[in-house]
Design a protein that fits this description.
elongated, disordered N terminus, 19 strands, 20% strand, 5-stranded mixed beta sheet, alpha+beta
């Protein structure tokens, strides 16, 4: 994809995300990962959490508050997954909200299950829900999007901005499950989303790690004003999200055409519509001009024996359109047609301007050109009328436009494009 290095946002919306607790999928971790015996390293740092680890501040802060704990061997295991049972234990340690609904006896959570109480409390507080048939799946690993859904629903957060506009911040927003889109938007608006190493990449369906859950939990607590802010470059902030971007003048727009070449006389003006060959995107991969969009305009005379394409309108695949100011460099490539020239080779996969068709027919004597080839401009009747202007010539020079080789389309002025 063509990347735009110098785009700038022109319009913006504040990010918002929210998720549906009833659709939260479980996660699976060994019970020992949830409530391990405290390790001496907790006061001095875990040996597997380096001083420059992206989540160290989140982990240390929650360990100090007894929301999380490490292992007897002095490790935290930041990259280990988290099960639904383990997440319920973390939620119980972080929150002591009143019940908003009665408890459920989940068929796969016996009364002697190590996390039975935490699961019951997390359900009653509105953070977690079960599956049809009163199933909880305590050992199932929980994906990132479901952690955010749980927190947004448990804290009763809803998005303030249109969900799709908020989620456009994430380059992989199309991978967010339908049930999770609104809650994730609410969580993002509340600055609960932390994405390492790429802040624009949510990885919604990947299993959450212990480090990621620590970051999400801490930011959820911060959204309530319970803890101090942590400055992280991986925090999705509530800065405005651009819904439109300015593609700067000078940006090249690669185009293609239905035929390999266009043959025309130097003084012809021909209406032509080209197709954008590749997606035009932001640096984060957000599509501004989709491949297949149509660029409508004209090939016009440009100086002596040259033509130039001048764009007038961009038509998106959905049928919407915008004025589009772009043009090609002057094209001077020519091909000489002489008496006796084989029109088969000349016209193979070519589009022909009306005047060019008349000139070819007059010089070669092939009148079938008027009815059998793709004509641009006026129709076959005009070709037959124009032939007399070229009778008696032994040769004629035609301009040759090859869209994918000698037609370089460049924006003449900044183009403001919405994220598609």
């Amino acid at each position: 994809m063509l990347k735009l290095k110098n785009w700038q946002a022109t319009t913006a919306l504040i990010m918002t995300l929210g998720l549906n607790a009833t659709a939260i999928a479980p996660i699976a971790l060994m019970p020992s990962l949830v409530n391990p015996a405290p390790a001496v390293a907790q006061t001095n740092g875990f040996r597997d959490v380096a001083s420059n680890h992206w989540a160290k501040q989140y982990i240390d802060a929650l360990v100090m508050q007894n929301v999380l704990s490490g292992f007897p061997d002095g490790t935290f295991r930041p990259d280990a997954p988290v099960t639904r049972a383990q997440f319920s234990s973390m939620l119980q340690a972080a929150y002591s909200k009143g019940a908003i609904r009665s408890g459920i006896n989940f068929v796969d959570v016996p009364s002697n299950h190590w996390a039975a109480g935490a699961i019951r409390n997390s359900y009653q507080m509105g953070f977690l829900s079960g599956y049809p048939g009163n199933v909880f799946r305590p050992e199932q690993n929980i994906p990132r999007e479901q952690v955010l859904v749980s927190l947004a629903n448990g804290l009763n957060y809803a998005p303030n901005a249109p969900t799709n506009q908020v989620l456009n911040f994430f380059s992989d927003n199309g991978n967010i499950s339908s049930f999770a889109r609104s809650p994730v938007a609410a969580a993002t608006e509340k600055r609960m989303v932390v994405n390492y190493p790429n802040v624009n990449l949510l990885n919604p369906t990947r299993n959450a790690t212990r480090a990621e859950v620590a970051a999400f939990l801490y930011q959820a607590m911060h959204s309530e004003g319970r803890v101090a802010a942590i400055n992280s470059p991986y925090l999705v902030s509530n800065a405005p999200i651009a819904t439109e971007y300015r593609i700067p003048a000078g940006t090249m727009i690669p185009v293609s055409y239905m035929r390999d070449k266009i043959l025309m006389m130097p003084d012809e003006t021909l209406p032509v519509t080209f197709a954008v060959r590749t997606n035009i995107t932001t640096q984060e991969g957000q599509v501004l001009i989709p491949a297949g969009s149509q660029v409508k305009g004209e090939l016009r005379p440009s100086g002596n024996n040259a033509t130039q394409f001048v764009a007038q309108e961009l038509i998106y695949p959905d049928g919407s359109s915008r004025a589009f100011n772009a043009r090609s460099n002057p094209i001077t490539q020519t091909e000489t047609v002489r008496r006796g020239t084989s029109t088969g080779d000349l016209l193979r996969n070519a589009a022909i301007g009306t005047a060019a068709a008349a000139a070819i027919a007059a010089v070669t004597g092939d009148r079938a050109i008027a009815t059998e080839e793709l004509l641009l401009g006026a129709g076959a009747g005009a070709v037959l009328t124009l032939i007399q202007n070229f009778l008696g010539r032994n040769s004629v020079d035609l301009l040759v436009v090859e869209p994918e080789t000698n037609l370089n389309l460049t924006l003449s002025e900044d183009f403001v494009a919405p994220v598609r």
